[in-house]
Amino acid sequence: MSEAIPEKMAALLAKRGAIVSLDKLFGEASYRVYYRATLAGGETFIVMQMPAGRQSASEEITNYEGPKLEPPFLNVARWLEKAGLPAPKVLDTDLDAGLIVLQDLGDKTLEKLLPSCNESMRDFFYKQAIDLLLQFQKAGLEKADPECMAFQRSFDLPLLLWEFEHFLEYGIEDRFGKKIPQKERKWLMETGHRLVEGIVKIPYGLTHRDFQSRNLMLFQYQFYLIDFQDALMGPPQYDLVALLRDSYVVLSDATVEALLDYYLEGREKLGLPKLDRDTFKKQFYLITLQRKLKDAGRFQYIKKVKGNPNFLPHVPASLAYVKSAFASVPEFQGLQEVLAKHVPELA
Fold it and tell me: For residue 233, what is the enclosing H or E element?
């Protein structure tokens, strides 16, 4: 069903043609709203509507201290274009109205492609995605730009620990309607601090932050990056965890191991700093713990605070990844035992 066409949106697109239909696209987890505008000549554009003054709590506590002269999306998009990385073109803006007009890349996300894929085609698509991640990381190393805010903020201890506490608050207390005893919560936060300390010791590079199957769009035979406004500096495994331990698409352990090896081989071919295989994989599972606990809590938060329950079916997959990862980081067995008292999926 076509939406009513806001006056400022019609004015912004007027030089390209009259809007004949406006369709609201399926909303994900953010406060941004996306529309597909179809013009009289048949051309289509994506229009992003940014709500005034709204940002996620995680954005508010990132350690970026530079000027905020423009929306992060525009800032990072400019660097991506300059670096020659595939992302939708920014075609026009009306920032007073919170509107950004983008190139329409279609609807073929990696997630939507997979159900019709055989094993060979699935592996081909995932290797394409990893190739794009490697290009992104290489550009981040070789074309770092202080004017791009992604290079001026990072996963620091406060942000990672906030995400861990986010799970305690929403993934346990809100989901199960209970309060964690104060003494136990204190121990959990101390153990969470130890977990994230291990992450911040990993050498950092440019990180998309949500490099998963819904944020990779196939257009003209290659994957494009979308939803990149939260990019920052982080460990190289972080985006791989998002891709290979995706709450929306479950891959076998054997497939994940093979794709991790493909990534490490790709790093060497591109001349990126060599990483010890065993250490790299240990860190991959450490980050899996932190990221997927955060995701499980986030999905509950989206239901509670944003009134959107559509992510709740993906909580079990997120927690299954956590349970599996605990086997690779036995030093956190105590954390699993305490969390399992509250979260049956972790027992």
Answer: strand 232-234
Q: Which residues contact 229 (CB under 8 A, 6 or more apart)?
A: 71, 72, 73, 76
| List of domains in the chain | 110-346 (3.90.1200.10)
Spacing of C-alpha 226 from chain mean position: 10
Q: What is the pLDDT of residues 301-333, one digit of tens each?
A: 999 998 899 999 999 999 999 999 999 999 999
Rg (CA), the chain: 21
* Dist. CA 280–CA 286, nearest whole Å: 10
Give the pTM: 0.94
Q: CA angle 336-232-242, nearest 5°?
A: 45
Q: pLDDT by residue (tens digit) across 185-194?
A: 999 999 999 9
Spatial CB neighbours of 252, under 8 Å, sequence gap ≥ 6? none
